[in-house]
Design a protein that fits this description.
It is a single chain. The radius of gyration is 25 Å and the shape is elongated. The protein has twelve helices and 21 strands. Strand 12 (about 230-235) and strand 13 (about 240-250) form a beta hairpin. Strands 8, 9, 10, 11, 12, 13, 14 and 15 form an eight-stranded antiparallel beta sheet that branches. A six-stranded antiparallel beta barrel has the order 1-2-3-6-5-4. It has helices at about 1-10, 55, 95-105, 140-145, 165-180, 220-225, 255-265, 300-305, 350-355, 395-410, 435-450, 475-485, and strands spanning about 15-20, 25-40, 45-50, 65-70, 75-85, 110-120, 135, 185-190, 195-200, 200-205, 210-215, 230-235, 240-250, 275-285, 290-295, 340-345, 365-370, 385-390, 420-425, 455-465, 500. It is an alpha+beta fold. About 40% of the residues are buried.
């Protein structure tokens, strides 16, 4: 596999795209020069060709990714690994030695030795692109490192307006599309690894970039996490680029979906696509290998949660102030305190408020209406709750859809958890066949997921009495919830074995 990387790297003159993650959990994409790919030690020697913030980022998060892709043939691989920063490296091939000498003459001060953990294909074939093609000796160390970022909720954001956005950037994007040069999309996985995917950026609209995506890949899953996003539009002929940093939303219907499908069919992709509307908050331009800011919209504290990641890696490297992004400075953090377990309650019912009030002393419960449901609220929650049966069937179906999506999220997200508990409050005062069907559908789906994934979902159904909103019933509800949370294994619970509240 390392020989394949070398062959592709030679095809593209040792120029690739690198991704690191800054202290806010924002991916940053840059052009990198690959000096050597050393098979024996499973390492890649490289440096940041655009003098961006890669070295600074690697002090907060050592995980780095490379997209080594021939954009003319679409033969390529994505590499993920652990980056070690040094002031010098020792290439072993003639071309590597020459490129290293050129870098020294250019004044490059920092080099990177990437220990390769995983290698992925970049074109979806007979299996999901979430599955790696190869794992290296450092994979266990790579997988063990968990750089966690606060949950991010783009659904709560409104786009900023960028003057003359379409007029400024659409000519560049149309030029790249005509040359069949894809852009590169950067996202961040749950445990902190950046991900890079080539995507054809269709156009710049009034205040968003438009491109297409498909299911069963890491970018789609990271979007759904969700993750802040970077989009790099690179002209491979000149080496100049524009990087957009912001957030995006999926659209499955509408005119932009039709436009994406039409363009992708012309390019040669026939699979159904989703349209991505990507809203920039920051824009950077790179000319002559120098990166500079050309747009700073809202401060990061206005559209991103507070950063809690600290410098822990590559601390022997000093980064000059000119290379560090002053806009990424994190607010002062309060001293850590013992926190209650976090839970989320999905409900539009007043009943849910009464249930939560009885649990405040035990759990930090966030109430989410069905309109507010977003995977961003799930990653820190160890328990998910919902109410079923207090409204019409249509409302219950909305809850069921959210619970099915959440079950899929916890199963596939690799949150390093053995179990996650679902507690479903049955508020149906008549136990109808409809409610039985809803419950059975959820339980069957969870059983299927539990057979396929390491994180097990345990579900308890708590049947409530007609006077569930009464203050007198609250202690009993709390008692049943704590029983479900503290039980080591709930077992195969279904509607007929539901925990009854007296």
């Amino acid at each position: 596999m390392m020989n394949e990387l070398t062959a592709i790297a030679n095809e593209i003159n040792r120029v690739a795209i690198g991704a690191s993650v800054d202290m806010w959990g924002v991916p940053q994409l840059t052009r990198v020069i690959l000096l050597d790919i050393i098979e024996e030690s499973e390492t890649i020697l490289l440096y940041d060709a655009n003098d961006s913030t890669t070295i600074e980022n690697l002090q907060y998060n050592p995980k780095m990714s490379l997209s080594i892709t021939n954009v003319k043939t679409f033969n390529g691989r994505q590499v993920k690994g652990l980056a070690e920063v040094a002031t010098s490296v020792a290439p072993i091939t003639p071309i590597g030695i020459k490129l290293y000498g050129d870098a020294i003459q250019r004044g490059v001060r920092h080099f990177i030795k990437l220990r390769v953990a995983e290698i992925f294909d970049v074109i979806q074939k007979d299996k999901s692109l979430r599955q790696s093609e190869w794992k290296g000796k450092v994979f266990a160390e790579f997988d063990k490192i968990n750089v966690g970022y606060a949950a991010f909720a783009p659904s709560e954001l409104q786009p900023i307006r960028v003057n003359s956005f379409k007029e400024t950037f659409n000519p560049l994007l149309q030029s790249l599309l005509e040359k069949r040069f894809p852009g590169f999309i950067g996202t961040v996985e749950f445990r902190g690894a950046p991900n890079i995917s080539p995507r054809f950026i269709i156009s710049a609209e009034d205040n968003f970039l438009l491109w297409g995506d498909r299911f069963k890949n890491k970018t789609f899953f990271n979007f759904s996490r969700p993750s802040p996003v970077s989009a790099l539009a690179l002209d491979w002929d000149s080496g100049n680029s524009v990087e957009f940093i912001g957030w995006g939303k999926f659209f499955f219907f509408g005119k932009t979906v039709a436009l994406v499908n039409d363009v992708w069919r012309k390019i040669g992709f026939k699979d159904p696509m989703q349209a991505i509307h990507f809203f920039p908050e920051e824009i950077y331009r790179t000319d002559q290998n120098k990166r500079r800011s050309i747009l700073k919209g809202r401060s990061r504290a206005e559209w991103l949660p507070q950063s809690s990641v600290k410098k822990m890696f590559n601390l022997h490297i000093s980064v000059s102030a000119s290379n560090a992004e002053t806009s990424t400075t994190a607010p002062n953090l309060a001293p850590s305190v013992a926190l209650k377990p976090k839970a989320a309650m999905i409900s539009n019912e007043a009943l849910a408020t009464h249930i939560i009030s009885s649990l405040k002393q035990d759990l930090n419960v966030k109430l989410l209406t069905i309109e507010q449901y977003d995977r961003a609220h799930l990653s820190e929650s160890t328990c998910l709750m919902a109410t079923i049966g207090n409204r019409g069937t249509e409302v219950d179906l909305h809850y069921l859809r959210a619970l099915l999506d959440a079950a899929s999220f916890y199963s596939e997200a690799n949150l390093n958890r053995k179990t996650v508990k679902f507690i479903i409050f049955i508020a149906a005062f008549e136990k109808s066949l409809t409610h039985r069907a809803l419950i059975n559908a959820l339980e069957s789906y969870i059983k299927t997921l539990n057979q396929a994934y390491p994180t097990k979902i345990e579900v308890a159904f708590i049947a409530l009495p007609p006077d569930a909103e009464s203050d007198a019933v609250q202690p009993e509800i709390r008692k049943k919830v704590l029983f479900a949370l503290q039980t080591n294994e709930l077992g195969e619970l279904n509607y007929f074995k539901a925990i009854e509240v007296d």
